[in-house]
Write a structure and sequence with these properties.
about 325 residues; alpha/beta; Rossmann fold; Dihydrodipicolinate Reductase, domain 2; 2 domains; eight-stranded mixed sheet; 10 helices; about 25% strand; nucleotide binding; GFO_IDH_MocA-like_dom; Gfo/Idh/MocA-like_OxRdtase_N
Length: about 325
Amino acid sequence: MKLGIVGSGMIVHDFLSVADQVPNLELVAISTTKRSEAVGKSLARNYGIQKTYTDNEELFSDPDVDTVYVAVPNSLHFEVAKAALMHDKNVICEKPFVATVEEALELKQVADDHHRLIVEAITNVHLENYKHIKEAIAGIAPIHIVSLNYTQYSSRYDSFLEGEIAPVFDPARGGGALMDLNIYNIHLAVGLFGKPSKVNYEANMQKGVDTSGILQMSYLDKQAVLIASKDSFTNPRSFIEGEKGTIYFDGSTGTLTNYTLELKAGASQEYNFNQYNHRMISEFVDFVKVMDTHDQALADKWFNHTLHVLEVLVAAKA
C-alpha cells in the first residue's frame, strides 16, 4: 500500500510512530494546511515520508499514492474522503466515519463507481483480543447485561472550562464524548451483538457540549450501557455478563489490552492475544492486505459494520 496522509494532528503523530511496524506499507506523501506546513515537513523528515503538500488536490493527483488516510477533523471527513475517491484513490477514513447514513452511502457509491475501496479506521474491532472475546462469548451465553466504559479525563478539559474549545469538544466539528470516545464502545457492542432495537442517549452538557454521557442500547435479550466521559477520572472496567460467567477488561475500549474470563463454575483466566504493543498496528496490517489484494468482500463487510454503527450514532444524536 502506497499511502498518502491528509492531516497532521495527534492521531497522525500516533500512527507514524508505529508505521514502520506495518509490513508492505510505503509512506509516500503527507498533506497539511499551509498553517501546519512546518509540522508536515517535520513529520516527513522524522518518518521518511517522501513528499509534502499543502494542497490536498496535489496529493490526490499524485500517481505514486494509491490509498489516502483521511485524518482531519471529523466535520471534514466526508468532503476529503469524497475528493480522494474522485481521484481514484482508496480511502481509509478515521473514526467517526461521517455525520450521516446518507453521507456514508454516497461515499460507498463513489467508491464503487471508481472501483476503489473505502474503510473506517477504528482500532478495537481489528484487535486480536476482540476476535477472541467474540468467540469466548458463546461460553458464557446467554448474555443479559453489557457495560462498556471509556472514561478518559481529557488533556484539553481544563482549557475547555476556561473557554478554549478544541476540536474534540466542538460539536460543530464533530466533537464531544459521544463522537470522540463512545464511538469505540458502539463499535465494540455492534461488532459483538449486532444492531440494537432501541437507542437512547443521556448526556451531561456543558457549553453545549456532551462532555460525558450514557448511551443505552436495548436488544430483545439484553441491555447494554455504554459510558463515555471526557470530564471525569476513573480506572474504567467493562463487563459482558452472561448466565454462565463474565468477561471483563480494564482500561480503554479502544485498546483492549487484555481480558478476563470468569466462569460461574469458579474458573478464572486472564488472556492477551494482541499481537502488537500499539493499538493502531493491527488495523493497518488489515488495511494493507485489503487494499493490496483489492478484497472487495472484506471491505464491504467492514463498511456494513460501519453503517450499523453510524445508524446508532444518528439515533443517539436525535
